Amino acid sequence: MSNVFEFVAESRGQSGKNAARRSRRIGNVPAVIYGGHKEPQMLVLSHNEVIKHLEHEAVYSHVLDVTVDGKTEKAILKGVQRNPAKFQVLHLDFLRVDMTETVKVHVPLHFTNEHTGIGGKKGGIAAHSMTDVEVSCLPSALPEYIEVSLATLDIGETLHLSDLVLPAGVSIVVLAQGAEHNLPVVSMMASKASKDDSAA
Predict the structure, then answer these.
(1) Which of the residues 83, 104, 116, 149 has an alpha carbon 20 to 30 A from that of 47?
(2) Which listed CATH number (3.30.230.10, 1.20.1290.10, 2.170.120.20, 3.90.1150.10) goes with 103-199?
């Protein structure tokens, strides 16, 4: 069985909705791999294998091996189309990467010390404005996630994008557009219980 960061595919000669539907009927997932100064290539993958891979959060923010007809290319997962009514993946988009060129990828945020930080100990509740953030970096520097510590966040305070501690070589894409894009990430709100305590 392939490891979680390897997607084994076969080339798909036909494109279009009819060919995609035929692939799904026999338990496969149609996909495309593009970029990297090459022509897009239509693929087909095993639906069962795809489901197993997508259960791992790290797949969405890692450089992957996409093996097509025995030949492996480096890529990132840029899109997943799902059937909202069924437990079914309808289509995957892979973007080829060059290890010497920067990529833009959405990386999940992992919040820590939510209940043990300053605000949490006072009964505060963290209100999350974001669950992931788009970063720019070389593929080798791509983080699996970005940790957001709420240890020093007091009730009434907010952490913004510029407050995030990033690994070396990683930048937040939207911040390059100016200070007005320094959006809130998480705020510590007073719960009803903590308000009552303050009033008392």
Answers:
(1) 104
(2) 2.170.120.20
